[in-house]
Amino acid sequence: MDSGIIAPKMRWAAWFWASTLASVLPAAEPALPAPVKEKIEFRRHVEPIFKAKCHACHGPAQQMNGLRLDNREAALAGGYSGAVIKPGDSAGSRLIQLVAGLEKGKIMPPAGPRLSPKEVAILRAWIEQGASWPESSTSPPPRAGISHWAFRPPVKPEPPAVRQRSWVRNPVDAFILARLEAEGISPSPEASRTTLIRRLSLDLTGLPPRPQDVAEFLTDNRPDAYERLVDRLLASPHFGEKWARHWLDLAHYADSDGYEKDLPRPHAWRWRHWVIEALNRDMPFDQFTIEQIAGDLLPGATVEQKIATGFHRNTLTNREAGVDRNEARFEQLVSRVNTVGTTWLGLTVGCAQCHDHKYDPITQRDYYQLFAYFDRAEEDEIDAPLPGEIGPYLRALPEYRRKRQELLDRYGIAALQAEWERNLREAAAHPGKRLDWDFQLTSFRAMVDAGEKILNTPPEKRTEKQQRRLSDYFIRNPGPDFSKDKALMGKLKELREQLDKLDAEFPALSQAPVLVENSEPPKTHVYLRGDYRRRGVEVQPQPLTWLLAVREDAAPNRLTLARWLVSRDNPLTARVTVNRLWQELFGRGLVATSEDFGTQGEKPSHPELLDWLAVEFMDRGWSVKQMIRLIVTSATYRQSSEARPELEARDPDNRLLARQSRLRLPAELIRDSALAVSGLLNPEVGGRSIRPPQPADLEKLGYANSVKWPESQGKDRYRRGLYIHFQRTVPYPQLMNFDAPDSNVSCSRRRRSNTPLQALNLLNDPVFFEAAVALADRVLREAPPRQEARLDYAFRLCLARSPSPRERERLTKFLDEQLGWMKADPTAARALYPAAGGSDPSEPAAWVAVSRVLLNLDEFITRE
After folding, report:
1. How far apart are CA 376 and CA 542, in angstroms?
2. pLDDT mean across residues, the chain
3. Radius of gyration for the chain, computed over Cα atoms and rounded to the nearest angstrom
4. CA angle at residue 781 from 775 to 782, to 5 degrees?
5. In three state form, how does the secondary structure of 447-479 look?
6. pLDDT band at 573 (very low <50, low <70, confident <90, very high)
7. What is the bridge-based pairing of β-strands 377-383 and 511-517?
8. Which of 245, 268, 376 is nearest to 317 (CA)?
């Protein structure tokens, strides 16, 4: 037999038994190698082993759950199955178990040369001697990628000198023009005034300009007419609606839970309302951030500041009874960490959930230290009344309470509910004793937020809201015992109907989903491979300190995290934010990958401009409106969007910005524009979500026919697209046809597609057909009774300009053809224009056909 095979096996066996005996038999110590017998010095004996072997191939990170042996405090803190290094006790130290291979299937380091018996003995002796470890030793090795441009603090450069100085309107233009001149390219001429007002109106408010607004701007000869227009649009209450949309995308806002049941969230809108108001007030972005991350932790936090934390309540909620509630909560916390990473840092933080990030210097430990901030919070709902709600509520409350209690007493709910609660607690204490009650308990846990906490609170200590939540659930889900009593079930059905009627008549307060700090926060761990069932080392809340240090005395809570995010020394937040403002106004960020500023993201096209804007943003008090004003008043923004053949090969993506970008409108703005030009739009700002008409039976695609879509009536059905109820499993089809995100994860930039289905949507969707009818009616009522004048007015309503002679000629021909067909087929004419009553429908029906053409034009759904 080959001695080359036997000898290593014999040496390994001897070393294994020697190591084992040495850990349990003090008498074995004299037989250990010589260095063990002397005083072990860390720098001389231990540190070389750590550096040469224990850091190899990220061994400690893989075998010890994210812990590296380059940090004294972390190594002495303890692990998931024994202290990593337990001074005075080598047998109880996790380090020795791993380097000696005493645990089946695990050895450190996992790659490269193993530790020799002598090296293991040195480590064991060092630990037995007290593990003396100088504070200054083993500073962390530099992480790959920390020198990346985005991780360096922005420095405000001087605007570069340019030759064509007359083109420059503000410093933004100097940076753009300098690059163009270096490439030998001239900027495009300024767009026409009609294009500029339509561009500004759509970009700043999301609505097309009215004909009178266009006429006023065209005749305004003051030198600052453009700047006055910008200021008026920035002051519009519709500004907050337009700019809230991309923030809602980042938060993946929706009006339902997601997953299988996808239950509606009747109060989700209250946070959206807060966002709109905050943007309209131009709340400084640093405060905007702090309140959403940790508004509840501010001293003397107001209701509005607490509402702001609803940002974190847009995570999906899995209400499937068979899902482990720990797993469901874990997935929500993961979503919160990933969303914060995308929104404020522009980093793919989520890649570190299961292992160290492959490209950016984010370790798995970093990830769960961020995770720990949110692990210490819990969900709640608070009263969040809008102006005018509190008075009617307080007046009606005593009578509501009286009637509700009278109903509960009449049906004997107190005694029935007490028995139901007792059975639930029994099922929780003795799982498996009664399977039917086990199922009832799991369903209860899934369907009632904080249900078990309420269940275990004595009735006399529950709040009125908690007691009502429990009673309402019981009346609808009385459990397996009561469900067998058909007479009782009939009475409970009667009670449900009467309670529903009472609630419908009661002027209840608006509610808001929020986060609050847990008074008894759980311990947070690294989760091995991102598995919620496998806990690694315990971690404390801490931001990415390699990016920016945090004060040693900082409290380990979300408020510290929020202030760290918007610190002037944080190199990412200001850059990421101004890049997204630029993306909204040009269709592409200076960094195209606005969700990824890491080493795998694209480099900025104009790095000096990006840094100048980031510092300018902070210098201007984090004012979003001032930054938008700065950008839109630049010559760069005002350029024509006409394509330039000479640049098609050199700059197909318009990275150099030698022209403006021609952009298909977002889904919501297409619908808003159709409603606006037709005169149907309800301009009310804020408030609850609405359900406009949609294709028949679409809601049946939801789970078990549980999705209901009661169409909004009256003026509510004509509110802006921002307010459309977003059902995650069955989203409003027009939004999805035009590339709205699915609201399951944070979306930093929408894609823009061009499909035949979109044209069919604009032609045949009930909303767009109704808009075409209303537009035709408006043209016939408001324009002079001449065909040419009416065509001109319809054009100005839809496109903010008059038609060219060629366009007028083609539309006139089309109108005449339609008029002939409608006269020949009165039934079809009446179908197009049912409001005709007993009069001739042919002319208005022909104008409906013209309106459908205008609302389907590429120019109508495009921002030039």
Report:
1. 12
2. 90
3. 33
4. 85
5. HCCCHHHHHCCCHHHCCHHHHHHHHHHHHHCCH
6. very high
7. antiparallel
8. 268
Q: Give dist(CA 129, CA 127) in Å, integer.
A: 5
- 683-734 tens-digit pLDDT: 999 999 999 999 888 888 888 778 889 999 999 999 999 999 999 999 999 9
Burial letters 723-743, b for 16+ CB under 10 A, else e: bbbbbbbbbbebbebbbbbeb
Q: Residue 379: beta bridge partners?
A: 515
Grade residue 76 by pLDDT with cuts at 50, 70 and 90: low
Q: How far apart are CA 23 and CA 19, in angstroms?
A: 6
CA atoms within 13 A on the CB side of 294: 22
Instruction: Give CA 646 to chain center in angstroms.
Output: 40
572 vs 346: CA distance, rounded Å? 7
What is the chain's length? 864
Closest listed residue to residue 68, CA positions, set 529, 535, 524, 536: 536
CB atoms within 10 A of CB 848: 23
Neighbours of 420 (CB within 10 A): 25
SS3 142: coil
The residue type at 170: N
Residue 45 DSSP symbol: I
Q: For 381-423, what is each residue's pLDDT tens digit?
A: 999 999 999 999 999 999 999 999 999 999 999 999 999 999 9
Summarised one tens digit per residue, pLDDT across range 6-54 is 344 444 444 443 444 344 333 333 344 555 567 788 777 877 777 665 5
Nearest-angstrom CA–CA distance, 73 and 75: 6
Neighbouring C-alpha atoms within 13 Å toward the C-beta of 19: 25
How many C-beta atoms lie closer than 10 Å to residue 631's C-beta?
A: 20
**∠ CA 604-606-612 to the nearest 5 degrees?**
105
pLDDT tens string 95-121: 888 888 877 777 777 666 788 888 888
Which H or E element spans position 535? strand 535-539
Is 3:102 a contact under the CB 8 Å cutoff? no
User: What contacts 480, CB < 8 A, 6 or more positions away?
Assistant: 436, 437, 439, 440
Please list, in sequence order, all residues whose beta carbon lies within 8 angstroms of the beta carbon of residue 498, skipping any fewer than 6 positions away: 407
CA triple 492-267-524, angle to 5 deg: 100
- Answer yes or no: are the C-beta atoms of 275 and 244 closer than 8 Å: yes
Q: What is the pTM of this model?
A: 0.86
Query: Using CA atoms, how far apart are residues 764 and 760, in angstroms rounded to an integer?
Result: 6
Say how far apart CA 352 and CA 143 lie, in whole Å.
14
Rounded-to-integer distance, Cα 362 and Cα 383, Å? 39
What is the rounded CA–CA span in Å between residue 825 and residue 260? Answer: 48
Quick check: 204 and 196 in contact, CB under 8 A?
A: no
Q: What is the distance between the alpha carbons of residues 815 and 807, in angstroms, rounded to a whole number?
A: 12
Instruction: Output the six-digit token pair for 499.
Output: 């309670």
Can you tell me the distance from the alpha carbon of 346 to that of 576, in angstroms, rounded to the nearest whole number? 6
Take residue 569 and report the two structure tokens written for it.
């020394």
The token duo for 64 is 């010890």
What is the β-pairing status of strands 663-664 and 862-863? antiparallel
